Amino acid sequence: MCKPNIVRKTPMNFIMMAFVVGFQAYLVGYICAFYNQEAVVNAMASSILIFVALTVYAWYAPELSLWIAFFVELACVVVIVLILFTQGYETLYLGLVGLMILIMGVYIVWDTQMIMKG
């Protein structure tokens, strides 16, 4: 970012956050319009359940070290690239998607612990 101190001040950071959240809400709504309602509701409910469960776990789990962020980011990049190349192989594709869900779970726990630490 060209001027990082501008978005770290009170009125501007809220404006920028509102812009990002509004754009993401519009994007997710647009993508969800192409799926049936039951699939979208099931995905939303399972995402909420997983996030809440991992957040509660992060409160009581031993603290993860800082180096785990590097490995989580590296694993995400590797798995995303593999997912892009395994579209025709359904079993391998589903296994990689499951692995990505586990990796993101570790990230949620680590990030929640970093937020709680202050």
Low-confidence stretches: none
Q: Count the E strands.
A: 0
Structural class designation: mainly alpha
Q: Average pLDDT value?
A: 85
Summarize this entry quickly.
By secondary structure, the chain is an all-alpha fold. Helix content is 79%, strand content 0%. It has helices at 10-32, 37-60, 68-85, 90-117.
Task: Characterise the protein shown here.
The chain has 118 residues and is mainly alpha-helical. It is 79% helix and 0% strand. It contains 4 helices and no strands. The model has no long low-confidence stretch (mean pLDDT 85).
Features of this protein?
118 residues; single chain; 0% strand; mainly alpha
What does the secondary structure layout of this molecule look like, with pairings?
Elements: H1 10-32, H2 37-60, H3 68-85, H4 90-117
Helix pairs in contact: 2-4, 3-4
